[in-house]
Amino acid sequence: MSVPTALTIAGLDPSGGAGIAADLKTFSALGVYGAAVVTALTAQNTKGVFGIHDVPPDFIAAQIDAVFGDLAVGAVKIGMLGGPAAIDAVAAALDRYHPGAVVLDPVMIASSGQPLLRGEALDRLRDLIARVRVVTPNLPEAAALLGTAPARDEAEMLAQAQKLLAFGAGAVLIKGGHGSGAESVDILLDASGETVRLAAPRIATENTHGTGCTFASAIAAGLAKGLPLPIAAREAKAYVGAALAAASRLGIGSGHGPLHHFQAWW
């Protein structure tokens, strides 16, 4: 019996806190073998993003073909895509292989504030949503996808999730980490109409580098292991909370530090 396998399609953060590095750490921490396709090379650290070098779309496709041509991929996590050409290459690959469990983290802005989605990519990203099992925008990303203001409360989060479902995703999970209040609340809405409220105490920390990447990849890990989406999302929420709470123990970098992906072992 083979180990569950998940594939991340995302950008490379050389400081190790976000993107592919965070995804692979998350997969490993949750007992899933991780494969990776690089969509962009970034020059970044905990203080900011200083440069982006896009991988040619034909080479993105070649990487995806190599993975699917050999590995039994149980789930796919998609993160930073950068521009329209990369999105088109990934969309075409999803159409070739039809993976059933695809988690799309619509990465638009880094934790430090720099934009990571460029050009006419927003419209292409909306089209990509129809190919995924679940899309996981935070409050600003959900607003950007809909062309509206960020949700101010749970009722508005649910209303925006309902509108995002119209793009064709199997489910929408709007993350409330950018909100306020004692609890950090996420809203998961399935195409069947089932709504799940995911709540956890809000953690006061500056070490948030790679939080969205980690959450999406934790959901993908759960799906790769065969968990139903609501359970995978709950377990991912708990994992991210523990990794955030322990992040200060790492002492990495002088800006927004990374999460402690291996807090249960180190």
Written account of the structure:
The protein has a domain at 5-140 and 206-249: 3-Layer(aba) Sandwich (UDP-N-acetylmuramoyl-L-alanine:D-glutamate ligase), CATH 3.40.1190. The protein is of the alpha/beta class. It has helices spanning 19-29, 57-68, 84-97, 121-128, 139-146, 154-165, 211-224, 229-245, and strands at 5-12, 33-45, 48-54, 75-78, 102-104, 134-135, 171-174, 183-190, 195-201. Strands 3-2-1-4-5-6 form a 6-stranded mixed sheet. A 3-stranded antiparallel sheet has the order 7-8-9, sandwiched between helices. The protein contains 8 helices and 9 strands.
Looking at this protein, list some descriptive labels:
21% strand, 36% helix, single chain, six-stranded mixed sheet, globular, alpha/beta, three-stranded antiparallel sheet, 266 residues, UDP-N-acetylmuramoyl-L-alanine:D-glutamate ligase
In short:
36% of the residues lie in helices and 21% in strands. With 266 residues, the protein is α/β, with parallel strands linked by helices. The chain has a domain at 5-140 and 206-249: UDP-N-acetylmuramoyl-L-alanine:D-glutamate ligase, CATH 3.40.1190.
Structural class estimated from helices and strands: alpha/beta
Strand content: 15-25%
Strand order of the largest sheet: 3-2-1-4-5-6
Overall 3D geometry? globular
User: Which spans have pLDDT < 50 for at least 5 consecutive residues?
Assistant: none
